[in-house]
Amino acid sequence: MGYPPQPPPPGYGAGYPPQPRPQSSTPQVLSIIGIVCWFCCSPAAIVLGLIAQNQFRNEGRPDTIARVAWIGGIVAVVLGILSFVIRLAAFRSTGSSY
After folding, report:
1. Helix, strand, coil % (nearest 5) of the chain?
2. What is the model's pTM?
3. Residue 73 sits in which domain range?
4. Over the stretch 22-50, which tens digit does the pLDDT of each residue have?
5. In angstroms, rounded to a whole number, what is the distance separating the alpha carbons of residues 69 and 43?
């Protein structure tokens, strides 16, 4: 014979509720770097902006700055191509060796 099992001590509930995940600053940093890349490497701005946008959406946060980064990258690429074509046409029409 032995003693009956003791009940659990009073005051202990189900425990602490799950803690929310802290928001990461990585997507915001990627977006800002993407905006800076408009001036030096536009394709990188597009890639960084899209990666940041996916991370923002996974966290359920607004992704406006990421959208600005990749759309600005596209605009910079188009303007770069347009500038190249205009300079090439001007170079060929003048016939200079500049």
Report:
1. 60, 0, 40
2. 0.69
3. 26-94
4. 778 889 999 999 999 999 999 999 999 99
5. 11
